[in-house]
Design a protein that fits this description.
The chain is an alpha/beta fold. Helix content is about 30%, strand content about 25%.
């Protein structure tokens, strides 16, 4: 075959491949629906009138997202508590790209909107939603069917509850999507599955929610202080932007650990549970499986309430939740698909149910089990859908337990918003993770054939109190692996409060354990733990003693199970046809982005002996702001390198990239020749102290260090606690609770924590903050001695004189760019001046005649003078 013939055949093949690709893209667009509208989105922002307050107008900050083609259906998107409309931008764009008019707004009391926070009150936040629905209904570009505008509401958490409450108040809402939200706020913040009226106060979460009412910056007019007629725009002292009645009710209830009458009324009016009969719009409920604030049981209650009034409802249990950032995209795609179906008239009485589960296939790279989505014909528990269960026998004798005064020390199961991190604390210790005598444990035999827990297990217990008339306990169901490790699914426990007890008289109770999804592997065992304390909840002020036993007749836990067809994220048929194509396109796009941004993710053997190599590092944030711009430097073994620069220079951002806390936009960061990415194994060779210390205040300094090391999963002897404690220099104070520490003491403890295990690379951000001069001098000796062992130290500081005495090398940054790097001697000597004499040779002879040896040396300036010159040059 001639060369020309071969070329023509290749051209023909290329044309055929291009044509096939185009046809596949058209087919994919047809099936997925991505070609229904154009992708151009027009965004405009303005303030609109909300519900007046105290006789004064209130303005709400809104943004409108218009698709390319109108008229179109509309959706009102509500924010989470403490956020503003900017948190809804991605979701709004997704809706607009799909062909919807999306209206986002900042709820009253937050961001740039006016007014005070009344917490989903009918006369304020809910009425604001009705006003915004009216604005959408009045628009000519909003699609109408039979004269009624097509308008949906959607939101997550606080926004999810508002979406439900607005739909109940305004029947112009035709579809609802509520993500990770609550059914009964009193049950969510004061949970009690035993039926008591007071509940157990979810102290940490409630405190975090309340803190979200204290913005860093108040809007114009409010920041200057209220006039007498502004209804006290700042609220009473210490209340931020909360309305006075909300603030007073919360403070009184938090102090008492139980809701008072005003608090109960506020929570009632903010609860979708009270308006279930009024919600007529078909509703999607997506709920996170990792959520200690609003667990799956809250979505279950909403689903049951809506179904009881014949409102079509679809339930999805997704990955993520308030304790994890995973899965938000799932909620958005589900909301769009649901709204599509509702407005297309495709929603019937029976809805599919989806839930996410770990398939049990462990990745060798990450150590995590793979995740898959299962789809079932209907939601279990709703009328007409049978719920399969399985009984697992437990065993164990009656066990006495003690409750320390004020619940301290306490078990640590979950920390608000940090479920994944707190799980490491929980798993790092033996099965009884509290102080001795606080936990009763009942275990099962080995589970045969595996067990998928999908819902709320129940168990009967017999509880006896020795002296008090009330009992507070925390129950959890744990998965025990053959190697002895244990997992508390989703880090959830059931708080149990019993009142009306008689001392010495046993009482049998049915305990509803947390609703979870957990794939228990064959050969594992289950353990029911019942503890007297939990760090996340309030506890009785006095010490107690109880006895916990299994109910004589059963001694078993009843477990709801689930089953369904494993599907991919999206319609199964879509993926069968275009899955390969999409993977190819995504892979190409990812490769293109990596090449375009020059992210180097490969090992570099020639750098294996180099502690730090940073090449052309760029870190860019939203809006185009470059915190670090094309920075290159190297750190060698045995060096103490000082990272210098004024505020905003990019020092901390550089250090955060170095230790894998954030990923760069471009360039490469290698530690001992390995690329730094979140979770990289090479990070185990780094000890870091960045952006201040963070410890559990109710534990001692020693306990915090041991807990931190246990969370790394490495053997205890490798920690070298004696050296770390010697470095801390806290003396007897190391056994005091950290809540009593001064800032300087916490700083020293943080440095000791970074040095646990004597890492090869030590990275410290402003380590001398809060230390007095003798402590700073001692720290200087520690860092220099540490480097003399062949290890390496990178330290940022604003104390230039101290850097000059401590560091062998310096890196100077200004406005995100590198302005100088080298040894301290070289940098300090740069630009120096010398005494000039007319005849240096004559001067030298005169000195030698006097018995003085002379030689020419460069003049040396203070590092501070050089630094000021360098950053001054950077301003040009």
């Amino acid at each position: 075959m001639t060369f020309t013939a071969i070329r023509e055949r290749l051209r023909s093949r290329r044309a055929q491949l291009v044509l096939a690709l185009v046809l596949l893209l058209v087919l994919a667009g047809t099936i997925i629906g991505i070609a229904t509208t154009g992708n151009t989105v027009h965004v405009s922002s303005r303030f609109v009138a909300g519900t007046p307050e105290g006789g004064k107008p209130v303005q709400l900050d809104t943004s409108l997202y218009l698709p390319e083609i109108t008229p179109a259906p509309a959706v009102l998107l509500s924010q989470g508590f403490g956020g503003d409309k900017s948190s809804l931008d991605s979701e709004a764009r997704s809706f607009a790209e799909r062909g919807y008019i999306a209206l986002t707004y900042t709820a009253r009391g937050f961001g740039r909107s006016g007014g005070l926070i009344h917490f989903a009150a009918p006369g304020y936040e809910v009425h604001d939603g009705e006003l915004l629905i009216s604005q959408l209904a009045a628009r000519k570009d909003v699609k109408r069917v039979n004269g009624k505008p097509q308008i949906a509401t959607a939101g997550g958490s606080y926004g999810g509850a508002l979406s439900l409450l607005i739909a109940a108040a305004d029947h112009r809402v035709g579809a609802v999507s509520a993500d990770i939200t609550w059914n009964d706020l009193s049950h969510a913040l004061f949970p009690n599955f035993a039926g008591s009226g007071s509940g157990v106060f979810k102290r940490l979460w409630a405190g975090q929610l309340f803190a979200n009412g204290f913005p860093d910056r108040l809007p114009p007019g409010v920041a200057d202080g209220p006039s007498p007629g502004q209804l006290g725009a700042l609220g009473p002292l210490g209340c931020g932007r909360f309305a006075a009645d909300v603030c007073a009710a919360y403070l009184a209830s938090a102090a008492a650990g139980t809701p008072n009458a005003p608090m109960r009324q506020l929570m009632r009016q903010a609860s979708p549970a009270t308006v279930m009969a009024s919600i007529k719009a078909p509703t999607l409920l997506t709920q996170g499986e990792d959520d200690s604030l609003f667990p799956l049981s809250e979505a279950d209650a909403n689903a049951r309430g809506l179904a009881a009034h014949h409102t079509p409802v679809r339930v999805v249990w997704r990955q993520g939740g308030h304790d994890s950032a995973v899965g938000g995209g799932t909620a958005t795609s589900e909301a769009i698909a649901w709204t599509d179906d509702v407005f297309a008239g495709k929603v019937g009485t029976t809805q599919r149910f989806r839930f996410s589960e770990q398939a049990g296939v462990v990745s060798a790279a990450t150590g995590d089990a793979s995740q898959q989505t299962l789809q079932a014909p209907g939601y279990p528990g709703i009328a007409g859908q049978p719920r399969p269960t399985r009984t697992v026998q437990l065993s164990g004798p009656p066990q006495p337990v003690s409750a320390p005064a004020d619940g301290s020390p306490a078990m640590i199961t979950t920390i608000p918003g940090l479920g994944g991190i707190s799980s490491r604390f929980d798993q790092a210790v033996p099965l009884l993770p509290s102080a001795p005598g606080q936990t009763a444990t009942f275990t099962s035999g080995k589970v045969s054939g595996g067990l998928l827990i999908a819902g709320q297990p129940t168990v009967q217990l017999v509880i006896t109190t020795q002296s008090t008339r009330d009992v507070t306990l925390f129950a959890g169901l744990r998965d025990l692996a053959p190697d002895g490790s244990q997992t508390l699914p989703s880090q959830l426990v059931t708080p149990l409060r019993l009142t009306g007890m008689r001392p010495g008289a046993p009482r049998t109770v049915t305990v509803r354990l947390p609703s979870v999804v957990r794939n228990v592997q064959s050969g594992h065992r289950l353990a029911l733990t019942v503890s007297t304390t939990d760090f996340a909840y309030a506890a009785p002020r006095d010490a107690r003693n109880y006895t916990i036993a299994l109910a004589d007749r059963t001694g078993a836990v009843t477990i709801p199970t689930g089953s369904g067809t494993a599907i991919s994220a999206g319609h199964p048929v879509t993926w069968l046809i275009v899955g390969g194509l999409v993977c190819l396109l995504i892979g190409g796009a990812v490769a293109f982005v990596i090449i375009r941004r020059r992210l180097v993710l490969k090992s570099v053997p020639e750098l294996a002996a180099v502690p730090v190599s940073i090449e052309s590092l760029v870190k860019e944030y939203a809006g185009g702001y470059r915190a670090v711009d094309d920075v290159t430097f190297r750190v060698e073994r045995g060096q103490v390198v000082g990272l210098l620069g004024p505020n905003g220079a990019g020092k901390t951002t550089t250090l955060r990239v170095l230790v894998g806390l954030i990923t760069p936009t471009a360039g490469s960061v290698h530690v001992f020749g390995e690329p730094v990415v979140p979770g990289a194994s090479v990070l185990a060779r780094i000890g870091a102290f960045i952006e201040g210390p963070g410890f559990l205040p109710h534990l001692t300094g020693r306990e915090n260090l041991r807990l931190y090391w246990a969370a790394t999963g490495r053997p205890e002897p490798d920690a070298d606690f004696a050296t770390a404690l010697d470095i801390a220099g806290l003396g007897p104070s190391v056994d005091r609770r950290v809540r009593t520490y001064s800032h300087g003491m916490k700083q020293r403890l943080g440095i000791a924590q970074a040095m646990l295990g004597l890492p090869e690379l030590l990275v410290l951000d402003e380590p001398t903050n809060g230390l007095d001069p003798p402590q700073i001098a001692e720290m200087r000796e520690v860092l220099q001695g540490y480097a003399r062992t062949g290890r390496t130290v990178v330290v940022s500081s604003h104390l230039l004189a101290e850097v000059e005495q401590t560091c062998t090398h310096v890196v100077v940054m200004h406005k995100g760019r590198l302005v100088a790097a080298g040894s301290t001697v070289e940098i300090a000597g740069a630009g120096g001046v010398q005494l000039s004499v007319a005849d240096p040779a004559e001067a030298t002879r005169v000195l030698e005649d006097a018995g003085i040896t002379a030689e020419l040396v460069p003049a040396r300036r203070a590092l501070e003078d050089v630094f000021l010159d360098l950053i001054g040059a950077g301003n040009d």
